[in-house]
Amino acid sequence: MDNIAEIDYSLVNPPVITKTFMDLDFKGEFYNIGRHQEPPFTAGPLSFPEQTNHMMNLAVS
């Protein structure tokens, strides 16, 4: 991102594409450049309520 922080992200599941939606399941992590270490916890799964009237849903934990 800049000379202080980086982001590492990737798809964790295959994309799901239908006539009405596209689901891209990414997992990412921000960390300091030169000091990348695994977090001391495992992030739990996130879930969204079923909604059809939003263009995009985003969750950050």
TrEMBL record:
Key words of the record: Antibiotic, Antimicrobial, Disulfide bond, Glycoprotein, Immunity, Innate immunity, Secreted, Signal
Localization (cell): Secreted
GO cellular component: extracellular space
Gene Ontology terms, MF aspect: lipid binding
Subunit structure: Monomer. Homodimer; disulfide-linked.
Domain statement: The N-terminal region may be exposed to the interior of the granule, whereas the C-terminal portion may be embedded in the membrane. During phagocytosis and degranulation, proteases may be released and activated and cleave BPI at the junction of the N- and C-terminal portions of the molecule, providing controlled release of the N-terminal antibacterial fragment when bacteria are ingested. The N- and C-terminal barrels adopt an identical fold despite having only 13% of conserved residues.
Protein name per its UniProtKB record: Bactericidal permeability-increasing protein
